[in-house]
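Notes from the 1:1 (GR / supervisor)

We went over the backlog. Supervisor wanted to see one worked example end to end before approving the batch request, so GR pasted a single chain during the call. The sequence is below; no edits were made to it. Supervisor asked that the structure be written out right there so they could see what the output format looks like.
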Amino acid sequence: MTLRLVPALLAASLLLGLSSVSLSPAHAQGSTLTRAQVKMDRDAFLAIARWDESLGNWVLKDNMPMPAGVASREEVKAMRDKFLSAHTWDENTAQWLPIQGTPRDMSKLTREQVKMETSRFLKTHRFDESSSTWVARAR
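Structure output shown during the call:
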């Protein structure tokens, strides 16, 4: 007789637990926004951003101007190219060394050399958006 009561008690307690969860109001923690406000925020975001599959991230749509204080893609590339023209990779020390004298002309390098150095640079540096500068990655 007690063996039949155990499953019944478990079922009853599970049912009571589920009913208390389903009856309690669902609120976002710390949020006082209404559903309409959340929809407006979502629509405003989707009007200026799109999902980029290759990056796996949200990016600004092509026709949208960059927010004030944010470096454009062209400016970021120009900073990278300036670094590459003023530094060269040293295989012996596995680090970037400054070039003595005038910066080198990157257009005189072969396409393969530029591609290799750019790839190495992207492996050793990352762009810090908060300071708008390239910083060395921690090893």
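Supervisor's comment: DSSP finds four helices and six strands in the chain.
Batch request approved.
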